[in-house]
Amino acid sequence: MALLTRRALGTARPARRILGTALLGASLSLPLAASPASAVVGGTPAPAARYPWLGAVGSPVFFVRPAGQFCGGALVGPDRLLTSAHCVGLLRDLPGLLNVTFGRDDLAGKGGETVAVKSVRVHPGYRETKFKDETVPHHDLAVLTLARRVNRPVVAVGSPGSARTGRVAGWGTTSEDDLFNTRLRDAQVPLPGDAACRRAYGASYDPADMVCAGSPKADTCQFDSGGPLLAAGRLAGLTSWAYGCARPGYPGVYARLDSLP
Ligand code: ARG
């Protein structure tokens, strides 16, 4: 149950509120309990013009968020947006229900441009396993073909290489408790390396198709999925999953892009 599903974040946090149900059979649930120190967590407001290739993936059926936004995505060709497979899995055969908005600082505002989606391709290796209460998406990549070409710069895809820090951006929540952030934010995040993520997640972390980033000070969170992890100015990963947000010992996990088929 991938698309539009926001699972509550772990057994340590029992209090949770169901915000919406019966959305294409998926449910949206977010926790209400107190969260670890945080604020994208640890970020600052960013002008959308800083990320002209960054799209907000949304759908009018996702009425609980302005612009129906539930994920991010990165423009890699004039009509090609990379996003997470878990963002669009359930809508792959209903691409007409998806749209992408570029250039909007705050989803609650206007501005920027919104483009319809023509088709969805999900990575053939996409599958889901479990880590505690979290769904672990493997090969969490999808390509959206837009209904028209947009006149915007594309982002170059790369490998994290030996980078020690990266950058993340998104319209997602600023902590595990924040239900309502709609402002684009970005943050610098450490890249702690595969060993750190193996320690956290064991075999759920697959270094062949994942890269980990983040700390208790800065991390991505819900509704940031599909958005960028930049390393040395290149798109090195897409926000995918983690155990909660910004929890000590549990970095964020990103789908690697240098293993694209
Ligand atoms: N699965 C989340 C989403 O769909 C992204 C979670 C990332 N979490 C993290 N702590 N880095 O928006």
Automatic annotation (TrEMBL):
<comment type="similarity">
    <text>Belongs to the peptidase S1 family.</text>
</comment>
<dbReference type="InterPro" id="IPR050430">
    <property type="entry name" value="Peptidase_S1"/>
</dbReference>
<protein>
    <submittedName>
        <fullName>S1 family peptidase</fullName>
    </submittedName>
</protein>
<dbReference type="InterPro" id="IPR009003">
    <property type="entry name" value="Peptidase_S1_PA"/>
</dbReference>
<keyword id="KW-1015">Disulfide bond</keyword>
<keyword id="KW-0732">Signal</keyword>
<dbReference type="InterPro" id="IPR001314">
    <property type="entry name" value="Peptidase_S1A"/>
</dbReference>
<dbReference type="InterPro" id="IPR043504">
    <property type="entry name" value="Peptidase_S1_PA_chymotrypsin"/>
</dbReference>
<dbReference type="InterPro" id="IPR001254">
    <property type="entry name" value="Trypsin_dom"/>
</dbReference>
<dbReference type="Pfam" id="PF00089">
    <property type="entry name" value="Trypsin"/>
</dbReference>
<feature type="domain" description="Peptidase S1">
    <location>
        <begin position="40"/>
        <end position="261"/>
    </location>
</feature>
<feature type="signal peptide">
    <location>
        <begin position="1"/>
        <end position="39"/>
    </location>
</feature>
